[in-house]
Amino acid sequence: VHRLLRSFGLNKSALLHLVPKLHLLFSGNPGTILESVQKLCDNGIFQKRRRNWIPTIKISELKNLPLPIPRHIAHTYTQQLELLSSLAKQFVECLCVLQMETSVDSLLLFTDTSSTSVPEIKMSLAHMPWIEVHTEHIERLNIKSPHNTLLYLLLPSERKKNWHLRIAGMLHQKYRARIAPVAEEIATHLIKGGQSSKALSFLLVAAQDALKSGNHHKFRALLRRQIPLLDNAKIQLQRFHYELQLQLALHDEELNLAIQYASEALRLAEKEQHPRIPLLRLQIELLSIEKQNTDPEKFKTLINYLPYNQTERIKAEQTYALYLMEDN
């Protein structure tokens, strides 16, 4: 595929992002791949410059660029979907949006369908070669790869958004009492459904849960996802984000960053007149003392107020012990 597209004239940067996606989506079929790339050029995504096709968008945007589906492939799927009952078609659309193996019970919830309709739906789906049924423990349905991605790309944009928002709403309703395990999933559906402003609070909940469980890799990734959503967010959500960034900086022992995040959280707390103002002021003072390595007695007083969790409290007490040892 790489050699084929290089001979077509795509530049190296574009190839790095597109080749894996094209190969996976069209199973390495050279004719189909060239047809899809030609359509990208026709749509103005690439511009001819001498002998090469140069992207007209940022290279980083190519990674998430929806690839055009050649007409003959789209026609085949359209014909297959026309054979399905209306309820079975809803199951297929829902599975496309979820992009994963899903229990029949969950599909009934997301599509608001009665369980009495399951035999009819299964009978209709039995004719589809890309549907998988797993019956171990809980009955689950899946759309084989790459059919799941192709069907998702063929779904009209507004219909996709509606499904994402519907699934987010149903998950929120079902798990309202214990939202943390599904908070990131809800946020993802809200973002894809065009309601990014509502997603931040769920990403914050998911990040806090990752921090509590000690999963700092996931915690770090969730904080990164929040950054593009901060500009238009409510002040209290922005403050919560910076307090979580502060916890990550403490974990990484990055004192300068910790002071920076604590100061930003304090600025936002003062703006909303939040009760955490004294606590954040103390946090900044504590960090400054630790940075300067001075006045251990004052440091001992401050650790009675901070930090936020037991792990960081133990770390603070150990730091104080080191100060005393150095003094002696």
Provide a descriptive summary of the structure in words.
This protein has 328 residues and is mainly alpha-helical. It is 67% helix and 5% strand. The protein contains 18 helices and 5 strands. Strand 4 and strand 5 form a beta hairpin. Helix 14 (235-251) packs antiparallel against helix 15 (255-271). The termini are far apart. Mean pLDDT is 86; it is low at 319-328.
Strand content: 5-15%
Shape: flat
Average pLDDT taken over every residue: 86
Low-confidence stretches: 319-328
- Computed CA radius of gyration, to the nearest angstrom: 26 Å
The SS-based structural class is mainly alpha
What are the defining features of this structure?
single chain; 328 residues; two-stranded antiparallel ribbon; 18 helices; disordered C terminus
Question: How does the SSE layout of this entry go?
Answer:
Blueprint: H1 2-8, H2 12-25, H3 30-42, E1 46-49, E2 52-55, H4 59-62, H5 71-82, H6 86-98, E3 102-103, H7 104-111, H8 118-125, E4 131-134, E5 140-143, H9 147-154, H10 157-174, H11 180-192, H12 196-212, H13 216-226, H14 235-251, H15 255-271, H16 277-292, H17 296-302, H18 310-327
Helix pairs in contact: 6-7, 6-9, 10-11, 11-12, 12-13, 12-14, 13-14, 14-15, 15-16, 16-17
